[in-house]
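Q: For a teaching session next week I want to show students how multiple molecules come together into a single three-dimensional assembly. I've collected the sequence lines for a complex. Could you give me the predicted structure tokens for the whole thing so I can convert them for display?
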Amino acid sequence: MIRSVLLSAVTAAALATSAHAQVVVSSKIDTEGGVLGEMIRAVLENAGIETENRLQLGGTPVVRQALLAGEIDIYPEYTGNAAFFFNRAEDPLWKDAGAAYAEAKKLDQEENDVVWLTPAPANNTWGIALRTDVAEPAGVRTLSDFGKWVSDGGEVKLAASSEFVNSAPALPSFQAAYGFTLGADQLIVLSGGDTAATIQAAANGTSGANAAMVYGTDGQIAFSDLTVLEDDKQVQPVYQPAPVVRAEVLAEHPEIEGLLQPVFEKLTLETLQDLNGKVQVEGIPAADVAQEFLTANDLLN
Amino acid sequence: MIRFESVSKVYDGIAVVDDVSLTLERGTITAVVGTSGSGKSTLLRMVNRLVEPTAGRVLLDGTDTASVPAADLRRRIGYVIQDHGLFPHWTAARNIATVPGLLGWPRAAIDARVRELMLMLQLDPDVIGPRFPHELSGGQAQRVGVARALAARPEVLLMDEPFGALDPVIRQQAQTDLRKLQQQLGTTVMLVTHDMAEAIRLGDRIAVMRAGRIDQFAPPAEIIAAPATGFVADLLGEGDRAFRYLSLQPAARLARPGAADGPVLPADATMADALAEMIWSGRDRLPVAGPDGHPAGVCTRDDLIRAGRPG
Amino acid sequence: MRDRMAILLLPLAASAVLPLAVFRANRIAAGQPHGLVDTLGPGAAGLALGALALVIGALLALHRPVLRVAVAAGLLVGLILLMGWGAARLAADAPPQARVGPGTGFWIALACAGLLVIDGMTRLRPGPALRLALVALAVGAGWLILGSGALAQLSVLQEYQNRSGAFWREGAKHLWLAFGSFGVAMLAGVPAGILLTRLPRIRPAVLNLLTMVQTIPSIALFGMLIVPLGWVAANLPGAAALGIRGIGMAPAFVALFLYSLLPIVANTVAGLTGVPRSVTEAADGMGLTARQRMLRVDIPLALPVILTAARIVLVQNIGMATVGALIGAGGFGTFVFQGVGQTATDLILLGALPTVALAFLTSAVMDALIAMLPGAAR
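A: Of course. Below is the structure for the complete assembly, covering every listed component.
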């Protein structure tokens, strides 16, 4: 009896998944993946393209493998990650937004028949955020400003993970490029700390912290009155989110490219912070946040 | 009747049972005695084919056991083992009903048979029947094991150290009960034991085994009177021989006309019992009861001592 | 005996002065503790304190375990309802993104009440049938309380309300993963165990292999299965149609199946070889055929050991199925990992609490079933 139950369940599952040649939309399991994935899904559905929802599938390797295996058709990926997909993390090219996107697009097209569509302008990379009530009066907007301000005796206390403080591509490369040095008394090292903890410390002024290690589009930033400083000398690789789609599927639905371009072009750093924050901080479901954004910007008709 | 014809069992080139020929008469108890490793259990287990002979054959009432499917053969043969081997997940009653159930008896017949056997073995069917083996005493479990072996009215009962797990007091009673039960049912019993006293007490005939061979096959009195080998004599134990011999003979056989003082010796007392009573009560003549329970004569010390030596 | 209980009454009384609730401006903000009076208002706080004193007094005065369990269970239910009421009160005049969760005082009182119930139950020693009935009663009570909406303003249930559809969908996937893989493992593992008892020569090799599988970290095993299953899906006609894919349910299902095999096979072997020799000897000697012996004697006697493995496997599977969310298998783990990503503790709890409850229930039911086997009380 158990056997027959198993069989029928397996058959039912099979019927459910193989009924149509739907476009399988996926994403990573993180907050931003959820929001961007829901946007892609809503836009495609709105244009009459049937989709299958496999959002928040797993971590980067899982989603990437699923795409290459043809199990999913489209998902949002970061340009900077292509450096790791193709084992070229050392190349300085990834620090330039335009070049990084072009290279990722070229490599993936040639090797995997996968197309990178128009990326968002937002750059979700490792960075430094300063309390807005400190940054504004001091006129600090970029990391160059920050370096000058710190060197001129600006009072700073940065909350960061020990990995951020110690690993060469992180704080040390910022200090070298922007000409400032943070002493031990200007750092609060949270061992094993993540951005949630560092942002919280800066926002609450815990132990005098007024700056934090962040990821550019962290949802908490918008709710914490922090300003992410622009990496104007391009020290960090650029991580712009872009829809990545299998060429075969794009050939079948060529309109996808034009449908998603205006959506992603609208996604600035602040917009993504805001959208992520709605999900992460306010607990609104990602689908609702995506829908609201698309409607408000007239991206659905 | 069980008949072994030149039966051998060889394991890895070693003959555990070595060319044994033996006939066990119908309706008797044959005790097979030997030390561990003598091959006595292997010999027993060749009857119900738990062990297949390497050479020779075993006949059961003239039929070669090898010609009968093993399961059918075993259902016709009662089997009792040392740790009783009761199924722990079945009640005592269900354990007893095992073989009738395998034979497809009707439910009512099985129930009646279980009841009958339990009463015969002094087990209260309503109290003991529904109990699980772990709720039984050692003696009760042993009797349930015997009842289970007898359930389908087998003509042959194989017993492998059936009293080995019982303490001495219960063991003696169990031995007496078995003797009575066997006389009542007329079952042919083959009993394996390492205990010569038990063999003497129960066996109509005793087979003494050593290293896979039969040293001597004879009635107990003959074994005691004339041990065929030094090994048989060793098993008997030098010092105990006279008492063992006396314990085989009823005291009533020595009764001669006359009268004596003191308590009367019961009719079923052995000569060993009589001697013990004389020593303990300080008498040299005892009145002996006849079959009706009244004194039928006297037994004297001189007669007893003479009777303690064969020949 | 009474000392053990008195030790629990002290923290129970102390919990009244600890924060009952934690208020957060949004779901990931730092929490502000709220005491009994803050949370409930002076009137209700007074009533609650009085009730607590009454309960402590009753526990000191009553000696029959049945009564003590009843009082402690009442305390447990009362605490939970009180928490729900307090949360609603705090949430009433706060913005919609604000969250109210239980505070340390609540947790301590809850733990004390729980321990008192467990302590009383161990003294009562209920039979397996009664235990099953009590489990059903607890599930029913939990269902009623959750369904009544009395706890709707608690932060975890706010998370639930935002994704109630997904919750039941993922729950169904979780059950299918944990119990489905267990079922298949039983169908394969028990016969394999029976076979291995007859092939003692290859037994160590097979068991060692299964032990090795067991030591692979779950996420690694999930990952390792993506490639071969993806290949099967792409190259074996009909495989994809059967739902076999490299990502999603299939690798998680297969991984859980593989993890389940060792306990089931090993315990089947142990159970069967553990049948006393005298019993198998008697069974053979009475003329049971090999098949009859297996079905009527060997398997029934090995069953407690096999069911113990089943219990271990089920609890293990229920827990491990959460990791499946990382490869797209769904299940309650989806909420756990999304919650980790968003640093939203309540979302993590939304995944973790039903998982723990499910494991606990399964374990209790399996224990009762094992105790109900005939002749089991040895």
